Records
---
Amino acid sequence: MLTRRTFLASAGATALVPAVTDTATAAAPSFPEAFLWGASTAAYQIEGAAREDGRGPSIWDTFSHTPGAVTNGDTGDVACDHYHRWRGDVDLMRRACFSAYRFSVSWPRVLPEGTGRVNPKGLAFYDRLVDGLLAAKIRPFLCLYHWDLPQALQDRGGWHNRDIAGWFADYAGIVADRLGDRVADWAMLNEPSVVALFGHGLGGHAPNLKGRASFFLALHLQNLAQGAALARLRSTRPDLRLGTVLNLQPVRPESDSPADHQAAVMWDAVWNRSCIDPLLKGSYPDIVKGDIEPILGHGDLGIIHQPIDFLGVNYYSRMVVRADPHGMFGTAWGKSSATHYTAMGWPVEPRGLYEQLDEIRRHYGNIPVYVTENGAAYQDVVTASDRVEDADRVAFLRDHLKMVHAAISEGCNVKGYLVWSLLDNFEWAFGYSKRFGVVYVDYPTQRRIPKQSYHWLAEVARTRRLA
Ligand code: GCO
């Protein structure tokens, strides 16, 4: 079975776009004063306190407790214990001169059954966190959905039940009523194509469903729910800045053959354009219309096509595909030409980030963009002197930030960069075996050890320069 790992491990590409000009990359890059620096996290990956203060179960609780589902049987029951240690974690960001932080709200912490009864203690947690962030002069970016659907809603069909558009809009309204006076920036979803592909298409993530029709239904209903929530918040809270977070990856054919080119067009439509096009252009790509039309309700596209104030872009690598008549979409992963790989097996391809930002400038109205995730897992080691010398991660971040700088120099509307992630955390099906943090977490003691990359990023945030 393809997992997220094998899938991305075979991604990668030769550069098929014009090289970034030397002038854009050569000078010691300095970033605009208003540029935001920070980190992203997600509730299930860091909070822990899974059964505390009235939180209901999510599909990731169910999945992680299923024998064999997650590496080493790891679960998010305790995670980074951020639910109790958030003050120290906010302080780590303050000391790093971070000006922004994207976190997600756990839907089942706020609404244990997904709809109906609100859990006051759940909302109170985010209330404290937001106040703590503001006191530390860190701008909160709140994401409403980072994959932890209430299990009670999964039991009612989850992302396969059209009612979810209303459930999600109601939940968005409840959170905004409580936090909208202090949180200005609201992202609806995180990476709907990952939820659709690994949760509902290939399997490997909660709720572990499979099939092409299942994939498209989950994708379409996430788009619909996102549109419903955007419309709800736009009408009730016109003062908020609304957006969403997509994982966009330039797709390249493995060879020049027409079949591989066709596979790349298909995969780009499935992975990238079926999310961004309906939202920003009001239509699905032609090549997937046969899949979408049978599930498209009257008026759906009007609901999905909403103005947004910003787009969050998560970027890790390009993707290479080739034609394969046996693949779910007639595609298979092609061979990467990259020379470096992270501990996830993902190719290191900083230029792909430039290409993606440039694509948004040229084809999507140069909408304001935050890089809401970028980072890498490496085999971090704590030295005898209690340090983590993650020079590979520093190089990764520096090379990608150079590309962000190049994109800005060429007119891309990039407003900030949030590293994935602040802390080592629960990396979904890989559990705690992959470390993405700029801060090391010693799980048995929950001790935090800022890595070399943390100190490096802090210096960049402080000086706005890439040393
Ligand atoms: C994603 C999620 C994060 C991951 C990160 C590393 O992109 O899958 O947004 O939750 O942990 O991307 O895989």
---
Amino acid sequence: MTDAGVAESILTDPEGLTKLIGEVLHADGCSTEEADCVADHLVEASLCGHDSHGVIRLPRYHSWLGTGQIKARQPLRLISSLGSARQFDGGNGLGQWLARAATAQGVALARKEGIGVILLRRAGHIGRVGAYAEQAAEAGCVSLIFVNVGGSRLVAPFGSAQRAGSTAPVTIGVPNAEGDDFILDFATSKVAEGKALLAARGGIDLPDDALMGADGRPTDDPLELYGASLQERLPDPRAGKGALRPFGDHKGSGLMLACELLGGALTGNGTNGPTDHEFGNGMLAVFLEPSRFDDLGMFDGEVASFIDFVRSRTPAQGSDLVLIPGDKERRTRAQRIVRGLPVPRPVLTAILRIARELNLDWDEERLMKRGVAMTGKD
Ligand code: NAD
């Protein structure tokens, strides 16, 4: 976030915020376990620095639960079972709850058989995909995860001025038995949609080629994505005439298209091709138990020494430290746990308004991190 964005943030107590979000989702019809799981996920995403996938999402989830776009209490429905692969339908339930349960099954299969493959379709928004790689790494498993966002045609593939894909995240996790896990987790668009929304609200600046204008020229203007809906309370990224752009030219664009095919076509979630599908995440996840493939007994030592080696390289000009994927999130989390979780005032106001509408007894005072100033830098 820019200083301008952070200056307007309230430093909140993550535990209080988790409780409040859990109560809102419970009042919206979710089971206690489901509500607590999603609340934990949103606060964790914010703690890790991925504000675009954190507590800022609650007003949208609340609205979607109201309109039936996502549904509370949906079970993870088994569609097919083949060897150590399982295919599930999420019935448009709460994505984090479904993806967590599906990951648990994939990891259990990997621990039993060496490999577990999960195909999940029609899950509501599954949020920060890195959370599932962390879940697998905690159980000692490698993960390869390809996700598409059905019903969310936002990204113009390389060479195109028109949308034909989603922000489709790719996530790879490798457990490190002797230290920090490797958790690579990113949207294949140059910026995640939530970051375009933050930019539209003045919270951050976007790279000047993050979007594609309707005229086929790169731009940093979020209006190209949201169009006139930017003025509404819940702007719609499908309303604009421009698009987000993929990262890494033809290579990132190719990964995005692969996610559409694997997370969209293979799972049955549907791609962002010519047919319009309901909004929802599709996820293909492969989990591996490394010790089952480690006849030389080298995996743990090799992972740990490689990670140490990478971190020990001389920083390039303009960078203080060489980090591995996952470090930035761990560092931000450690800092925010101590200093408080910064939440932009308009987001906190929106969450408290929803709580009031649901007759829940919360106010700003009760959410503030004790022992720190009310507003501050992150
Ligand atoms: P990002 O651009 O911040 O990249 C994050 C990745 O880069 C992480 O693995 C991080 O550890 C690594 N990284 C960051 N700085 C680094 C450095 N200096 N050195 C080495 N590695 C570094 O992420 P993003 O593209 O903005 O995505 C944000 C989140 O949005 C992700 O968690 C993603 O899963 C989520 N997302 C979800 C959906 C969905 O539909 N559920 C869609 C798109 C994105």
